[in-house]
Description:
By secondary structure, the chain is α/β, with parallel strands linked by helices. The protein folds into 3 domains: 16-105, Rossmann fold; 108-316, Mur-like, catalytic domain (UDP-N-acetylmuramoyl-L-alanine:D-glutamate ligase), CATH 3.40.1190.10; 326-458, Mur ligase, C-terminal domain (Protein-Tyrosine Phosphatase, Chain A). It is built from 16 helices and 21 strands. The strands form 4 sheets. Strands 6-7-5-8-9-10-11-12-13 form a 9-stranded mixed sheet, sandwiched between helices. Strand 18 (381-387), helix 14 (391-400) and strand 19 form a beta-alpha-beta unit. The longest helix is centred in the middle third of the chain and has 17 residues, at 287-303. It is globular, with a radius of gyration of 23 Å.
Amino acid sequence: MNAAARRAAPDFQPFAGQRLAVVGLGRAGLPSAHRLIGWGASLLCWDDNAASRDAAVAAGLPVGNPAEVEGFPFDALLLSPGIPHIRPKAHPAAVAARAAGVPVLCDAELLYRAVRASGSQARFVGVTGTNGKSTTTALLHHLLDAAGFATEVGGNLGPAALGLPLLGDDGTYVLEMSSYMLERTDRLRFDIAIQLNLTPDHIDRHGDMAGYAAAKAHVFDNQTSGDVAIIGMDDESGARFAAGRVARVVPISGKTAQPGGVWAEGRALRDDAGVIADLDAAPALPGPHNAQNAAAAAAAALALGLTRDEIAAGLTDYPGLPHRQERVGTRDGVLFVNDSKATNAESTAPALASYDRLVWIAGGVPKQGGIAPLAHLFPRIARAVLIGQCAPDFAATLAAHGVPHDILGTLAAAVPAALDAARAEGVGVVLLSPACASFDQFSGFDARGDAFRALVAALPETV
Length: 463
């Protein structure tokens, strides 16, 4: 039986004879459990939430706490990425697995094993970094898809890895890999590994910055000299990640020349051979941070065989991701941008830096440090419109720097007020980039962004 027939065969069971524990039955865990059963594994599933366990029982999954099974007699533990296996407090199932010498894995690892068991040599691209990995993942998938390549996208972005279909030798998986996932890989080898940047994050999970960097570096595990390591050079971590790589290193940057790599000079994306694309023609990719994302995606696309023209065309019509500098509408020449995903000052900074002059909607549940780290960008703000719990504190910071502002309280009040302010100031952009969590008024950043989009749609076309 050839590889294609083996993948299509109803009895393809790459995990036959293996006993796996699955803990965490949410977005990734539940579809993974169903897929693993279909692929022949014997499972025991668990979730600490009783309602999730009940839903699993109703779906016909075998439910029981693997931590309570003597000797932990499993071949692997598939642990949901958000559940710690070491810090800050290891889940009991992870404690039992480690005591028994059983590997703790993520679903991308099991997808890789299944693909290789099918005989397919489909390529795997892993994308990580503190910021920009979702955009880079989605952008690379878009470039491949628009050029007619067989490709699937998932992981930390979109569908769970084990929910993706099996691809043949001509296929490419583009997987966003969080540090939580990367520390649970084993045999997984990325033909192309992308590390964008590194700033402090998830320290409670990884112990310190060295631990966080070590988790990110797992994206390069198992690479050979025929593979590619694409590494962002716009922060000091780049040189450290590049040192000692077995794979061919391709440096990328959103602002400085990188001989042998891909970089942006202003808004011109280029490599040693010349200009690849004009990023001014790519409206969904504003700012230097997106120039770096575009450089990473273009470097990967070139390594995968796309032409320069195909890359330029794909960058131009890339639609962007929801809630990440998403252009949601225009009223009287004023562009409304939904950057609700920006839940702290660090993630708001690139959005503010993308526009010369704007009206800024900000606020919600504050993060440590508030908006003081954004002071160098305050001259770009014609007026701020503040909402949510932190509005008085944000107002005090803005007042100390002479930034005009209004406290409106709710997003529903802020959107029309921001349009009025943009008209009065002659400003062409209203940016929702809250620098705050959303939980005082919304269930999450996505609900906040959806509400913003609906409020903009409801604005009258003209006054």
